[in-house]
């Protein structure tokens, strides 16, 4: 199976976003990609300020049956494609992700964990649920979700062997380094990707935004990580497509042959109250 992780910039212009997605899907199809993971906020872009979001400059609110979502479904064809958007659900707005193919929506996720002022704009999701796709059982997270080990672990326990993490992950907003590779958030972004794959013995596909949105500078660093925490393919801070070919079933089974982290958990030893 070929897995693709995208680093790219997406802003407020939906028409431009769709044109860019069409080009990326075309490139991925040429590369033989079976699962393509686009960034968080593919449709409409992310916030421009994490601490004080501008209520008059928010991403456009879309529903699951919107024209734009339908266009990506049509573009996907036999490919499985994950992408992010601002989901309108009645009076609420969610930072959401959809997993689709040409057959329609395969799975959905609303971001649960909210950094800084994101809660001023978005409602929080309340669950992590795996789902079946043509490329196997999959789970999705949205950027800050991956900071919390329980999020990825719950998806792995629900049978997901591939986890897609869609991000709009910026450089530090309080202690920014002069060069992105030295930024604290750059190190953490890579650390979480490798750790979540290794501790759950799953394949991890991590996408991210690039470029600048308002006061936020996004890191890129899209990658595919194997179940041992090894990076199989990655991009830089600039736009790109990281593609890795891996037999997911065989590699996950091999990583769990002697040490099977999920089977060897000891839940009775852990505190369950907050």
Describe the structure.
This protein is of the alpha/beta class and 274 residues long. It has one domain: Carbon-nitrogen hydrolase (Nitrilase/N-carbamoyl-D-aminoacid amidohydrolase), CATH 3.60.110. It is 22% helix and 27% strand. It contains 5 helices and 15 strands. It has helices spanning 14-30, 67-76, 149-157, 184-200, 248-255, and strands at residues 2-8, 35-37, 80-89, 92-101, 104-110, 131-133, 136-142, 162-166, 203-206, 208-209, 212-213, 216-217, 223-225, 231-234, 240-245. The strands form 3 sheets. Strands 1, 2, 3, 4, 5, 10 and 15 form a 7-stranded mixed sheet that branches. A 6-stranded mixed sheet has the order 6-7-8-9-13-14, covered by helices on one side. Strand 11 and strand 12 form a beta hairpin. Helix 1 (14-30) packs parallel to helix 2 (67-76). The longest helix has 17 residues, at 14-30. The radius of gyration is 17 Å and the shape is globular. The model has no long low-confidence stretch (mean pLDDT 96). It comes from Nocardioides lianchengensis. GO terms for molecular function: hydrolase activity, acting on carbon-nitrogen (but not peptide) bonds, in linear amides.
